[in-house]
């Protein structure tokens, strides 16, 4: 069932000297209960896109449907009611330093007019859901970044929302804490069935939790689809950058390794293969050396888990004569394995 | 001007202590009452200035221009001139132009714009991300004012309120020159016109003590409210 639909949505900011097209002709359908990743570099228009979802910005053209409601048809007071059904978490947590943790979590209920006793009771329950039952009387400044984001999540869930928007919620956290928070989001999605929109500039976050992903660049969605598809067959240049960065880990280190290999052995090609869990890497590699006069040297290989199976990445050197190398590359492309030629004489 | 040796500062038997305590009481009264009203009006004006700035819409814009203009005008008029300028207005609302009550309108009108501008700047310091977060929960304008803007700027409001209260003390002293009562008038009439330097010194010390106490309490209170670095 479709929960959210963007229909040809554009947002133009009128600045003094020019019109800034922050979002352009976006079409997107997000299903009920799904975790949908939206990835893009800073300034791509991700935040603007989701801010239109809860009416903090209005689209210049196009329509946004949540369930059956068209957001732009709602009156100001209806819009405020609609906003209560969408929870939001942020990169910098945006907690009120002047309130205790418990009262921060209770704030959305206070705004909704829930009685003090009820809202504090609910807030306590939510704090234990995020594992902070003992910290209710502390102030946010007494918590670590990860704990602050847990409070943010508890607060976002206070009104029992149907949708949770995470706008770069892990971007200010260290890698370990990032994974904790991503696990918590996955858990919440499973337990409460909430639709989650995960905005990020890190493929890592999308890879860990999302089942679908849209890639944004300069206000447009340049590519979208299932996570595995995007990972194993990225088409757009930006998508490839994100995928490669995630698949290879430290780029600088890899680059210097590759430079060394190419320098000492400039005749042999280097290629990168990306394959999903159902196609394992090994049979492909061994079939190459059986079929062709080629020996294979593995430069780097790894496997990453996603919610819908594993994704493998393999960087190999093809050792053999030039024609044989070409044949192998053709063969791999025929197998529909994502193949990128990193170096070829 | 006879009687001006340094020894003239220390003739404590020439001081009428009843007059001193009376004047002290008047200074405290003027400062406290005017500060309460300045705080109320200052916060209201500060919020109006903040809420109408760059919000789009004809009425917001108009209100901002009018309030800004008045605030700038009254903030620029030297206090001693403002008192004189406001004499007819003072007479009309408190029915007298001497005594502590008569000082109130000028004190309030001159300190409120000063405080309102500082409050506007304090509100601007409130994290816009937090305001956005609270709006995304479905908050209306009043929720944002009561639950975010004021609580999250409290330490700054208190610190600037302290500065304002201290200015008010010096204004009350100036108002003494045209008959408001209080320590300023005592220093002027008894100390200057009757050549009693000891009275001037005593009045100075009491005012200094007030300033120090207000600064101390203000700092403490602001720090107590500030939960940002625990
Ligand atoms: N309120 C605004 N007024 C003017 N320009 C804006 C506004 N909000 C965002 N922008 C611009 O729109 C573009 C997209 O911004 P944003 O949606 O924040 O990108 P992202 O979240 O992907 O980093 C940027 O160029 C940004 O400067
Ligand atoms: Mg953003």
From TrEMBL, chain B:
Signal sequence range: none
Transmembrane regions listed in the UniProt entry: 28-50, 62-87, 93-116, 157-178, 198-218
Membrane-protein topology: Multi-pass membrane protein
Principal location class: membrane
SUPFAM superfamilies: MetI-like
Phylogenetic placement of the source organism: Bacteria, Bacillati, Bacillota, Bacilli, Lactobacillales
Protein name: ABC transporter permease
Keywords: Cell membrane, Membrane, Transmembrane, Transmembrane helix, Transport
PANTHER family according to UniProt: ABC TRANSPORTER PERMEASE, D-METHIONINE TRANSPORT SYSTEM PERMEASE PROTEIN METI-RELATED
GO biological process: D-methionine transmembrane transport
Subcellular location(s) per record: Cell membrane
Domain ABC transmembrane type-1 as annotated: residue spans: 24-218
Single GO cellular component term: plasma membrane
Recorded family membership: Belongs to the binding-protein-dependent transport system permease family. CysTW subfamily.
Organism of origin: Philodulcilactobacillus myokoensis
